[in-house]
Amino acid sequence: MSNFVDYVKIHCKSGHGGAGSAHLRREKYIPKGGPDGGDGGRGGHIIMRGNAHEWTLLPLRYTRHVKAPRGQNGAKNQLTGAYGEDVYINVPIGTIAKNEEGEIIGEIMEDGQEIIIMHGGKGGLGNEHFKSSTNQTPRYAQPGLPGEEGYVTFELKILADVGLIGFPNAGKSTLLAAVSAAKPKIADYAFTTLTPNLGIVEYRNYKSFVMADIPGIIEGAAEGKGLGHRFLRHIERNSILLFLIPADSESHYEEFKILEHELRKYNPELLDKQFVVGVSKSDLLDAELKSEISKEFPMENPPLFISGVTQEGLMELKDVIWKKLHG
């Protein structure tokens, strides 16, 4: 998942509608044939479609323009022009499309769901529609209406059961690598993962759940400092939040409160989610230190001590998460 792409901007243009026909019947044995011009066809739509087999917006990374064909013109004998072919943009579930003003056009919630993000222009009416008792042979028809055009932004919010929340270097990547087959980049210094990593965590009896390593929060993320907003939105989709505090933190509870504060500033509803607190890198701690850290947290559920390196506490963590997911 190192090539995770969660934000793509594409110029879209739906098809123009075809023009109506102004044809008059001219047949040998019908001297006053009258109007028989057909309607123009609708222009092609631009449609966003959910695809459960897509996990990222990577396939769209190099798509700069998407254009749908125009509708065909109407013809004689009241023949309607063919519709312009619709163009589909396949996106992962959890993708939101926004217009140039930042307004949400639609959100894909399930596989196969389709949302028209730009409507094709309506075809013009043929002259057959304009005949009347006072105008038996109208010699005019409507032109087709133009399609829509503009930039559309596609944003992906990760659909994961568990979202890992923590400052850079909290051990999120190490934990994800330890409990799943994900292979995130891991470094021994404070840096921020720039792309969310997803991992399928195997549980007892062939069960599993999805864990997402959300890029590291820095203080001020809710104000958009750094890449804060772009990544905080991923957390909105997680069922459970796993706050990860490193064992070598100067104040474990204080670090937890800072993370909680950033989430509250961004969206207070995030704190209504169930959460678990884990102290990572706990192979650095002895029993006495673990006891002291536990006392820092005035909570019903004390923190779990885990280590991605020694595997300590990982099954207990999975048990707690599974119970919260399916309790």
From TrEMBL:
It is found in: Cytoplasm. One of its GO terms (biological process) is ribosome biogenesis. Its cofactor is Mg(2+). The keyword Transcription regulation does not apply. It comes from the Bacteria. Its main location: cytoplasm. GO terms for molecular function: GTP binding; GTPase activity; magnesium ion binding; ribosome binding. Keywords: Cytoplasm, GTP-binding, Hydrolase, Magnesium, Metal-binding, Nucleotide-binding. GO terms for cellular component: cytoplasm. Gene3D superfamilies: GTP1/OBG domain, P-loop containing nucleotide triphosphate hydrolases. Mg(2+) binds at S173, T193. Its EC number is 3.6.5.-. Residues 2-159 form the Obg domain. InterPro entries: G_OBG, GTP-bd, GTP-bd_Obg/CgtA, GTP1-OBG_CS, GTP1_OBG_dom, GTP1_OBG_dom_sf, OBG_GTPase, P-loop_NTPase. GTP binds at residues 166-173, 191-195, 213-216, 280-283, 307-309. It is an enzyme of class 3 (hydrolase). Residues 160-326 form the OBG-type G domain. An essential GTPase which binds GTP, GDP and possibly (p)ppGpp with moderate affinity, with high nucleotide exchange rates and a fairly low GTP hydrolysis rate. Plays a role in control of the cell cycle, stress response, ribosome biogenesis and in those bacteria that undergo differentiation, in morphogenesis control. Belongs to the TRAFAC class OBG-HflX-like GTPase superfamily. OBG GTPase family. HAMAP family: GTPase_Obg. Monomer. This is GTPase Obg. The gene is obgE.
